[in-house]
Every structure is written in C-alpha cells, then in structure tokens.
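Encode chain A's predicted structure.
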Amino acid sequence: MEVKMKRMIMIMNVLVFVMIIVMVSSGTIAWSQPQANPGAKKTGKPMIQMAILLDTSNSMDGLIDQAKSQLWKIVNELALAKKDGQSPQLEVALYEYGNDSLPASEGHIRLVVPLSTDLDKISDELFKLKTNGGNEYCGQVIGNAIRQLQWSKNNDYFKVIFIAGNEPFTQGGTDYKNTCKESISKGIIVNTIFCGDLQEGIQTSWKDGALRADGKYMNIDQNQKIVEIEAPQDKEIITLGEKLNETYIAYGKKGMEKKEMQAEQDSNAASVGAGSSVQRSVAKASSNYVNTAWDLVDAEKEGSVKVEELKDDELPAEMKKMSKAERKAYVDKKMKERKTIQDKISNLRKERDKYVIQKQKQMAASGLNTLDAVIIKAIRDQAEQKKYAFEKK
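Encoded structure for chain A:
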C-alpha cells in the first residue's frame, strides 16, 4: 500500500511538471519575474512608466539616431506633467529587438534597462546600441515588456509602451493580438510607430496592434533629418547645465563611476547637436532627474541618506577630513547652489519655449514627422486622459 502511494505521488508530480512546461511553452505562464527597478524609491508620488522598444535591425540606424538626439526632449515633456498637483516620478525602460547578434532562442530580444529612474543609464545604453539583422518579433517583445518589467498595479497611473520598427507586426510565434490584449488588461497602453509609409504600416498590422491596446498608431521617416531651432537662450542653458555637475557629490561604491557617466552623457548629447545639449541641461534641472543612489544632495533631499551617518570610506576625498557638522553644511551649500542654477534654467526654458513656438509658426510648423514629435503628441493626449495636467507652453 505504501509503495503504491509513493508511485501515485511520483506520477502526480511528473504530471504537474509536464503541465507547467506546456503552459510556459504556450505562453500561458512565464518563468520571467518582474525586473527590479534600479534607482527607484517609493516616494508616494504619482508615476509615469514608459517602456521604449526599439528595432535594432540593419535598416534602423536612423531610428536609433533620432532616439539618441531626442531622448531629453521627451523627458522634458514629461517633466511638464502634474497629477493631483504633484510632479510624477518618471521611470523609463529600454528594449532592443530584431538584432541578429542577440540569441535566437530569446527571439533576438534584449532587455537593455528595466524600468528605472536612472536617466543617465538609459542615455548611456542608447548610445551603445548597434544595428544588425534581423527578425523582428513585435508580439514577443511586447509580451516580454509586460511580464518582465515591474509595472505599478495602479491603473490611474500613466503606463505606456512605445514600439518602433519597420517589418510586419505579425512576425514570430507570439501573436501580437494576445500580448496587446494582455497589456491593456494591466492598464498598459501600447503605441506603435511604423518607420515607413503610413499605409504600409496599416497593411502590416501596426495600426491594428495599437487599436487592440488602446494606443495610437503613428508613422515616421526614421531617416529624416531633425531641424533644430537655435534660440538666444541656448548658450546660457548649456553653460548652466555644465555648472550643475559641480553641485553633485558622489558617495558610495559606485558614486564616482556614476558621476563620470553623468559627464559622459553630457558629451554624448553634445555629439548629436547643440539642441540635444540644451534639452539635456533642461532635463537635469527638472524633477525627473534624480540620482539618490549616488549623489549626496539628492539622497539628503529625499531623506534616503543622512550625511552625518556615512562612514569615511563612503565619502569623496574633499569631505573625509570634515567634521559631521561641516559635512552637513557642505551638502546644504551644494543643495542651495543647485536650486539656484535649476531655477535659472527653468526660467530660461520658458523663454526659449516661447521663442521656439513663434519660430515654428513662422516655418509653417515644418510638419516634421520624427520620433520625438509623435511620442510627445501621444504622451500629452493619453496622459491627460489619466488626469495628468501639462504646463502650457
């Protein structure tokens, strides 16, 4: 009797295991766990969560270039949002897909950065992307983004996926209809951006994908040169953006590495044009640019660290010989300096916006259909439906 019972338990265990394998392979359940959110801190603020899914196959160099040059402009648009009178916490994730350098067993897909408040990390990884290939599985990458990322369960928050590419939306073994349905069941909007002709994108199901997830279908010319409008405020904004770096105090094991990355992203922005440098400087002055994980000023302001409690080996060289009172005074001084610079940039940004809007009218609103333009329009329209209010320009 005991032997029979043991055999029955063994058989049941095997059957359960087989059922799990079948469900995983069919996509009913997934092994992947939600990815941790580096740099994020539970602040009690409302949130905006945005995942960007970029096709990095051979024909997409222009798309990657637009993403590099316009990242900070998109971030700045989100910085103008408020919900219930509060500036929301921004988290951004980045995927690449359609790249033959990535394992075929994983659908030529890579999670580059999980949902994160570390905007310098997003920028750094964008500039490292290389195109190659490929096979572009839209349904699968959307499914990965839904299941792997640590999305808020609050459906009053603005949660959005932007997927951009140029091959049929139907490629691969994962049906986009199912993943788009799953996305909207979790309150995550999917916007699709076809890189090419509007009608071709419709015919290859990019519009259908967006409609199934309450999103918007858009098309862009990924090779279109972005026209930057120079404004009288630009030079001063860039100079102030450089001065902001002097107010950052690196602490902890990775502090200096992160501070060096900050300077590298300034250089990366400058490498694609003065307009990108301006937008990055404006972003650094906004509430979205927070670096509590490595900067003592942000950490002290957010209450995640008390400078008086840090050990000598966690502090930069210039603070090691200071008394506890001197260390606190030093951080407070840098905090005041930063606030002064950020306020100056914010005021210059408002003046610049007025100037640029006037110039755009004179240029008959040039009609540019680029990555930043379509994303910004969709963000405004959809976030306002979630009761986010945007500062008027």
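Residues 324-362 form the longest helix (39 residues).
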